[in-house]
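This section describes the prediction task in plain terms. A model, or a person checking by hand, is given the sequence of a single protein chain and must write out its three-dimensional structure as a string of tokens. No templates, partner chains or ligands are provided. The sample shown here is typical of the held-out split.
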Amino acid sequence: MKKIFFLSLLAFVVSFASLGITCSAQTGNVGCGDFKTGRFAYRDSAGHIIEVTRRGNRQKEYDKTDKILTKFKIRWTAECEYRLTQVWSNSKAKRKWNRHVYSITITRVNSNDSYDYGCACHEQGGRGLVGTMVRLE
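The expected answer:
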């Protein structure tokens, strides 16, 4: 009986803590909405730095190492969540992902110039991918 009570209490604490982490991304001086437009960069799974430009409902990503440009439509589904739909790439290998939708969640706003995110992306076989997006300007 004590074991069941302890496990129930532990499950409650874990779920409450995860709720606090989700909400913390939406509070403070800087919110997720501050990252809807601008120039950013992140490191991909191969270790390359990818430059990102967001304007309106469009996002461009450029890999300077491999000279690959990929274009997306971006749709914000919540304050800290968005979906990217790949629409074009100059890379033959990446073209197979045209019309593929990626769901990204901003898990924490670090400051006015960066945020942490999570994505279940195809490059990782559908496993959770996490990273940090940094503002360039």
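For orientation: The beta strands are 38-43, 49-55, 58-63, 68-78, 81-89, 101-111, 114-120, 128-135.
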